[in-house]
Amino acid sequence: MTIHLFRCQDCGFRCFPVRLACRRCGGEGFEPVPATRGRVLGATPTSVGVAVVDVDVDGVRLVASCPVMPTVGEELRLAASSETSGSGSLLFVPGAQHTPAQESEQHP
Amino acid sequence: MADIIGAGEAPYTRHPQDGTTTARVLFRAARQAVDESGIAWSDIDGLGVSSFTLEPDHAVDLAWRMGLGELGWLHQDTNGGASGVSMLQAAVDAVEAGRAENILLIAGDRMDMSDFEHLVSRYNSATAEHLAPLPMSGPNALFALLTQRQMSALGLAREDYGHLVLSQRRWASGNPGAVYREPMTMAQYLEAPVVAPPLGRYDCVPPVTGADAVVVQAADRASPSGGSGRARVRILAAEITYNVDDQDTDGLTTGLRGVAPRAWKRAGFGPEDLDVVHVYDDYPAMNIAQFLDIGLCAEGDVSRFIREEVATGRTPVNTSGGQLSAGQAGAGAGMHGVVEAVRQLSGRAPGRQITGASRAAVTGYGMVLYRYGACAGMTVLEAA
């Protein structure tokens, strides 16, 4: 699966979701940039069995869900998105090297 | 210069009676504020309103329903937890420009469970499209992530957050308007049901129905229609910033970091000269972020500051009990601290009065765009 970040055609600033104009330069042209992986900045479990995760995807901070509790710094890959063109929720799953989060890592 | 000459609060309740409407709750707070100011209802010539649930009505509909006369200034604020400071700033500008003499500012909501669920699922387009489907029912998970980072960055323990919550509960015991006033122990705090680790039940604001209101008047127009009420509190500063981009940072600082120096400069004194502080406390992590942002304590001193200053009451923080114990009345949360500060500075906070209190600061924070609040403001008040 691929998510599309949006890169300003004038200055290269990346964003998600897409905006009407670039916050850095005001440009209105964006081109989609495919991304498939992200790095976990933080994660917290929810009562419905998924973790809500803060993910850095190529420098853009996104909020997504993950079916397992990942560790901070772990690399995740995009598993699904209801819509990859700028709307819809994001679901990431662990990459190859998943180690279940320890309690101490969840509660620094 | 402008003064607050009256303050009021509609009673906060977790479970509003059938038939309770947002308009009626706002009106109750407004009436109390105007009565306290000593001016007549017909003297109101400016109105500012902030509410999430007033729809389909707008500020002018509320003015009409409340039986106000023709207004020279009308303002509808949509900045949630930052709306108190936002409206104060706008009202000060308006009275100084002569647009109105007596401005009534009201903020609040009917907020039962269905109202709350509706609000958080459709808070804005980013929430509706990207967060609600995760699933995420409100901002608790976002602020759990922020709290995790803050604990790591500042070396804080859950007990540090607990001291903030317990301190506010102690203050709430002296405030008959707070919805939770029973004493709480650290064990109760730590053992409360987990909401989103590391947040437990007492780290999250309880939504309530309620409203807060103040009357603002030009400082040089104190008579002849100047009111003879008991409150007169000078607004020394009301500074705010909007649209702080929440994808740029880790959320551990707010827009107050840039706003506070301007506010202190306008006030002519600094945080060390305050008698009472009200910070926007939707989560205790935000208290800490704002302590740092406004210069109340330094980064390496947070735990000591909490345990030796806040928990002991030596630095009085959120003396109403704050939102964590008094309740979060929707958009009223942005005005709650202002009303409590006015009460403290006019000597009308029985049960929790800070003796001789003459200077206060109140912060506002709100409007989660996608990750964290994009609006933050601060007012500095002094007994006139």
Main features:
heterodimer; A: 108 residues; mainly beta; OB fold (Dihydrolipoamide Acetyltransferase, E2P); 2 domains; five-stranded antiparallel sheet; three-stranded antiparallel sheet; 45% strand; disordered C terminus; B: 384 residues; alpha/beta; nine-stranded mixed sheet; two-stranded antiparallel ribbon; 13 helices; 11 strands; 36% helix
Summary of the model, kept short:
By secondary structure, chain A is mainly β. Chain A has 1 helix and 8 strands. A 9-stranded mixed beta sheet of chain B has the order 3-2-4-7-1-8-11-10-9, sandwiched between helices. In chain B, strands 5-6 form a two-stranded antiparallel sheet.
Can you describe this structure?
The complex is a heterodimer of chains A (108) and B (384). Mean pLDDT of chain A is 81; it is low at 83-87 and 102-108. Chain A folds into 2 domains: 1-35; 37-108, OB fold (Dihydrolipoamide Acetyltransferase, E2P). Chain A is mainly beta. Chain A has one helix at residues 103-106; strands at 3-8, 14-15, 30-35, 37-45, 51-57, 60-66, 75-81, 90-94. Chain A is elongated, with a radius of gyration of 15 Å. Chain A is 4% helix and 45% strand. By secondary structure, chain B is α/β, with parallel strands linked by helices. Chain B has 13 helices and 11 strands. Chain B has helices at residues 22-37, 59-65, 83-96, 113-121, 125-131, 140-154, 158-172, 186-190, 256-267, 284-293, 302-310, 322-326, 333-345, and strands at residues 2-13, 46-50, 73-77, 102-109, 194-196, 199-200, 209-218, 233-241, 276-278, 359-368, 373-383. In chain B, helix 7 (158-172) runs parallel beside helix 11 (302-310). The longest helix of chain B has 16 residues, at 22-37. The N and C termini of chain B lie close together (11 Å). The model of chain B has no long low-confidence stretch (mean pLDDT 94). Chain A binds chain B through residues 15, 17, 23, 41-46, 48, 50, 52, 54, 60-61, 63-65, 82, 87-90, 106-108, and chain B through 126, 129-136, 141-142, 144-145, 148-149, 151-152, 158, 196-198, 245, 247, 250, 370-371.
